[in-house]
Design a protein that fits this description.
Elements lengths: L3 H11 L3 E8 L23 E5 L9 E4 L4 E3 L3 E3 L4 E5 L11 E4 L4 E8 L10 E9 L2 E3 L16 E4 L4 E4 L11 E8 L2 E9 L4 E2 L3 E2 L2 E6 L7
Antiparallel strand pairs: 1-2, 1-7, 3-6, 4-5, 6-17, 7-14, 8-13, 9-10, 9-13, 11-12, 14-17, 15-16
Amino acid sequence: MLNPCACRQALSVHGETIRWFRASPCDCRDPRDPDFGDHRGCEKCEHGYVYTEQVIPTGARAMVTMVRREQIHPDLGFIARGDLMCVTMPDEIPLGNWDKIVLLERTIPAKEIVTKGEDVLRHTYPSSVTMVSAGEVMFTRWTPGDGEDEPAAGDWSFDVATGTITWHEDGASPEEGAVYAVEYLFHPVFWYDGSAITVPRPVADIGFLPQSGRLSLKHPSEV
């Protein structure tokens, strides 16, 4: 029999940190639609759900693995090779249908054209900017310096929270309305597939076994 304590220890050692956004049905949805509803034009939701970030207990992690071979799971049914599965302890991170998770220990490179004056990157969860350029001109990252011995210098800085490039007055920059290139890293976002979630099983006097579900890179309403 699986031991919940051993599973918890394995997740703490081999798991990864995530951000977790709980999905709640938006009031713009048609109650007769069991999935996503007619949410077109709604500014409050994504795909018919309102997402609220949850506080994850200190030390709690998720195990994200890729399926190596096709299999028939007793709860999830057919699982194809290459699918991503997410395993968590239900008393720490009780993921539910269509919840959104951000993998904080993984990054994907991106290259994008941005307009000066707008300056916001397309991907929602950027990690860092590696290069900003316009043609052959390379712009440098702004550093605040420490006073007279090392004055502030550079062209741009980056706000991770908002995904915004800020141009500094004393540095070089493209003209207003001109375009420039940005190379950066961002954290991948996945949807916890509501069609494939195991039910946490209780173990007498010990607790619950882990729950697992399939991760989708695209929401079904986008496919």
